């Protein structure tokens, strides 16, 4: 298969690359040379090294590489806007390759931003052109995105993933919260409690530590309760984004499974799509856009 | 004034010492040799060096020095219990000084623990023997403590201080949340919103970052909103601990002022006491207890 373009998901902490033949990946590479570890003058060299041996074909990149602190700022498009990717060019075709960076999306009221997820949404619509409903993209900053008639109508971000990481790994709860999978029944109970009475969930956080000290609370149970509490708060706050809606979850498998579990308990039947599939389909849509000039 | 005992507040990250003459401090010292930086065999030497030049008088210590990871474990007393301090002896009178460590307090249902705050409560009762009401001790892990007839009846901990620190200093909000004082009106508004609809406050966290990116949100305003949201959640969850109660706040000045502001907006007239006054009074009560054998 001929490599005719390169797909790049260039985020804060990682760079993932695929040599592409049309819509099919031929070879994948990844490194930890994310945006946050680079100064603007280093991106061209990093890309050249990371694509060594691949032909001088166009590169389509998404993610924080297009932020103000990245390589070239790709200004936010404002909602409502077509889900079709917009791009900016990196000046000078570095390494002899045209490089395009997908623009993030902004919402002015209430203020919100995304950068990277817009590509996954373009991918969702490339794979399912008639999609009309809500995309839920769980991650460090989970996004709920309303999509209709091929447009991104509006969206809402939550810090659930980042807060979970801080509490589970850096707070006093790190001594009490284990790794591994969550017990589904414990998780669902915590989701339900947090949705019904969010303030009770807040009261229950230090209690995880105390139960661990006084009653040998199982670390896996503590993890399920912490995760369920945070996702329950998010579902309570995001109710207009899922109640009576068709929801497709696009995220990493374990985290997507938790959101699916929580939404199913609310009577929904969410669909699932992998991040890699959505990202590649979105970058391929951007590449077709690039070819059309 | 004759130094007849030594008061020690030996916490996770700091050691504070006072050479005492009865209830009066003669000299104060402090260092960063907190419990977390020491192995059990180092405490005696650290105490000897930190009290160099002071006479070989009894030492009364409170705080995490008495935890399982500390010098000598001072087992928790269980509520309900007298507010009068209980102590354990460090074996062998290190450095020729009898050393006593004040015991923490536990509550089995719902599970909760304190270690250090019990000494401040003993101090509150030493300074105001008829106190009957709620002590609110804001800090890394804020405690609400019900006190009646000289006893600690029950208590409730919240992670507000620790969560604020993690969000303001380590999350994506660190770019948007400033230092300095909080605007009282913004703070009160955020408290009120979070109390009325806790899930809305959750939805507002990432919005601080987005408003900062898109609308140049003032970092001091972002700080007031974040602080008000977390304290609002706490007040919503702690309602039974303050509604219709006499509340005395014992904490650092800036943080105590925020809790006072929030409670005053709920129609309360909270009293205030400094941490140092309460701690020293509590350790002095423990010292009198020690003298009585």
TrEMBL record, chains A, B:
This is 2-dehydro-3-deoxygalactonokinase. It comes from the Bacteria. One of its GO terms (molecular function) is 2-dehydro-3-deoxygalactonokinase activity. InterPro entries: DGOK, DGOK_C, DGOK_N. The keyword Kinase applies. The keyword Transmembrane helix does not apply. It holds the Pfam family DGOK. One of its GO terms (biological process) is D-galactonate catabolic process. Coiled coil: none annotated. Keywords: Kinase, Transferase.
């Amino acid at each position: 298969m001929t490599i005719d373009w390169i797909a790049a998901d260039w985020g804060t902490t990682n760079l993932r690359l695929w040599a592409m033949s049309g819509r099919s990946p031929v070879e994948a590479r990844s490194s930890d040379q994310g945006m946050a570890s680079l100064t603007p003058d280093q991106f061209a060299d990093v890309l050249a090294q990371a694509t060594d041996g691949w032909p001088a074909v166009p590169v389509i990149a998404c993610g924080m590489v297009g932020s103000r602190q990245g390589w070239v700022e790709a200004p936010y498009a404002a909602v409502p806007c077509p889900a079709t990717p917009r791009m900016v060019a990196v000046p000078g075709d570095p390494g002899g390759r045209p490089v395009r960076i997908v623009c993030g999306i902004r919402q002015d009221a209430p203020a919100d931003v995304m950068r990277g997820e817009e590509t996954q949404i373009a991918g969702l619509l490339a794979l399912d052109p008639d999609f009309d409903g809500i995309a839920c993209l769980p991650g460090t900053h989970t996004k709920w995105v309303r999509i209709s008639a091929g447009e991104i109508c509006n969206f809402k971000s939550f810090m659930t993933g980042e807060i979970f990481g801080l509490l589970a790994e850096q707070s006093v709860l790190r001594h009490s919260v284990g790794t591994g999978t969550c017990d589904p029944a414990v998780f669902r109970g915590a989701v339900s409690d947090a949705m019904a009475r969010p303030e009770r969930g807040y009261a229950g956080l230090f209690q995880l530590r105390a139960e661990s000290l006084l009653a040998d609370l199982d670390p896996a149970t503590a993890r399920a309760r912490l995760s369920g509490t945070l996702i329950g708060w998010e579902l309570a706050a995001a109710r207009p984004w899922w109640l009576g809606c068709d929801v497709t979850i696009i995220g990493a498998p374990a985290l997507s499974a938790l959101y699916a579990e929580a939404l199913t308990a609310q009577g929904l039947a969410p669909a699932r799509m992998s991040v890699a599939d959505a990202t590649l389909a979105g970058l391929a849509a951007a590449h077709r856009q690039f070819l059309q000039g």
